[in-house]
Design goal:
The protein starts with 10 loop residues before the first helix and ends with a helix. The chain is globular and about 65 Å long. It has two domains: 150 residues, Alpha-Beta Complex (Aspartate Aminotransferase, domain 1), CATH 3.90.1150; 253 residues, 3-Layer(aba) Sandwich (Aspartate Aminotransferase, domain 2). By secondary structure, it is an alpha/beta fold. It has a nine-stranded mixed β-sheet, with helices on both faces. Strand 11 and strand 12 form a beta hairpin. The chain has 13 helices and 17 strands. Bound molecules: pyridoxal-5'-phosphate (PLP). The site of pyridoxal-5'-phosphate (PLP) has 13 residues, from helix 6.
Length: 423
């Protein structure tokens, strides 16, 4: 149907709301616990890289001409080689950086990879399994493309593999389809901050193998780990057939809009075909900056950043424990987020944020958007599918951006307001 100017928009525009991430970026508050914005960034290193590059470009206009130009859709080979080396040496991804570096490709943020993966794998009615709750930047495009989402219960160790197995059976029974994707963020999940233990990673891989389902392993927070990191699920995928592995420079370098992935070859081909139509290529200049960073400085930068994120986390956890009313929180060992749930099941954290938190200079992300707008959940016994369940008495509290004083002050303030509201 045409709008008042006579324009006829696609049906999805009327069904899908603006991204909550974008919506919240517009607020300017003193106590910012909303988006996954990195607050500790190697700005001095990045500035040095840029001034070195500036000198090199003046001396070498040919290099400058190439770096300011279009490049290959999947990324510049020199940058892919650098990424392959890090993925192999530090993340245990089973690719040989010498001769298998072209298994790596880049996108404009891992968000673009998530979108392109959905765009190339999902027809309306296809089935996807996600944890409950899950990263909204994955859920919303999945719903937009007509996926049937089955959300699977999680606990303090993340998604529960037995329920994933049940969800696959239920998908076959109810829709006559094996799911196309199992989506997980194994290291310090968004939004709950939980980390999948090794035995669950193995179990998920085995389930995916036995049913021929692609695992989408979104490792956005893999470098921001307060304990010894656990090997990715991708480490089990020796043949590069079963796991689409995504990383991002956003959390471990800077938000330069570069994500990197190791995808099974046939998946990579389709994703890059899609990317070619979305943006032709990613900026070569940005790849040059990141190439310097990943080949020379990342270890130094992470050694500085990770302990500082840990301190921010500890300050937030302490302030929650001291000031929040009855409820429970997760206990992350990395990443950017704590998930808090009120004991009061009638509490609506979205309504509370608009009415109370924002006027008090506070911002968090209410739990609602981390559940799909439409979809299914498992019944309590796990034997049937029910309409998607949402726990609106929850909130995601980000500790990455604000400094320790602001975190302690702001969380205490939020705790007092919540206590007044909930008793
Ligand atoms: C789990 C997860 N995946 C993907 C992204 C997207 O990251 P980017 O597009 O900046 O690479 C984010 C950003 O917050 C995230 O938390």
């Amino acid at each position: 149907m045409a709008d008042k100017n006579g324009y006829s928009f696609a049906t999805w525009t009327g069904l899908i709301a603006e991204s909550q991430i974008r919506a919240l970026l517009k607020y300017r508050v003193k106590y910012y616990f909303a988006g996954g914005k990195p607050g500790i960034m190697p700005t001095d290193i990045l500035a040095d890289i840029m001034s070195d590059l500036s000198e090199r470009y003046k001396k070498d206009p040919k290099m400058a001409l190439e770096d300011f130009n279009y490049g290959p859709t999947g990324g510049q080979p020199w940058f892919l080689k650098t990424l392959a080396k890090r993925l192999h040496d530090v993340r245990h991804i089973p690719i040989n950086p010498e001769d298998q570096w072209d298994a790596v490709s880049i996108t404009n943020g891992s968000q673009q990879a998530l979108y392109a993966l959905l765009d190339t794998l999902i027809d309306p009615g296809d089935v996807i399994i996600t944890p409950s709750p899950a990263y909204l930047g994955f859920l919303v495009p999945a719903v937009k493309l007509g996926a049937r989402i089955i959300t699977v219960p999680t606990d303090l160790d993340g998604i529960i593999p037995e329920y994933v197995e049940k969800a696959i059976q239920l998908s076959k029974q109810n829709f006559g389809k094996v799911p196309d994707i199992i989506y997980v963020v194994p290291d310090s999940d968004n939004p709950k901050g939980t980390t999948l233990p090794e035995n669950r990673r193995r179990a998920l891989f085995d389930i995916a193998e036995s049913h021929n389902v692609l695992i989408l392993e979104d490792s956005a927070y893999a470098e921001i780990q307060f304990k010894e990191p656990i090997r990715p699920i991708k480490a089990l995928d020796k043949e590069n057939l079963r796991v689409a592995y995504l990383g991002t420079t956003s959390k471990e370098a800077a938000v330069l809009r570069v994500g990197y992935s190791v995808l099974p070859p046939n998946v990579k081909e389709q994703v890059l075909k899609d990317k070619g139509y979305l943006d032709l290529c990613t900026s070569t200049l940005v790849q040059r900056i990141l190439d310097e960073y990943y080949s020379k400085y990342i270890d130094l930068a992470m050694q500085k950043a990770v302990p500082q994120y840990k301190k921010r986390y500890e300050a937030m956890a302490k302030a929650i424990d001291e000031s929040f009313p009855a409820g429970s929180r997760t206990d992350p060992t990395g990443g950017f987020f704590i998930w808090w749930q009120s004991e009061d099941t009638n509490f609506d954290s979205g309504e509370f944020m608009q009415r109370v938190a924002i006027p008090n200079d506070l911002l968090y992300v209410p739990g609602g958007p981390f559940y799909p707008q439409t979809g299914f959940s498992l019944s309590d016994d796990g034997n049937t599918l029910v309409e998607v369940r949402r726990e609106l008495n929850t909130m995601r509290l980000g500790f990455s951006y604000a400094d320790i004083e602001i975190i302690s002050e702001g969380i205490e303030r939020l705790g007092k307001l919540l206590t007044k509201e909930l008793g």
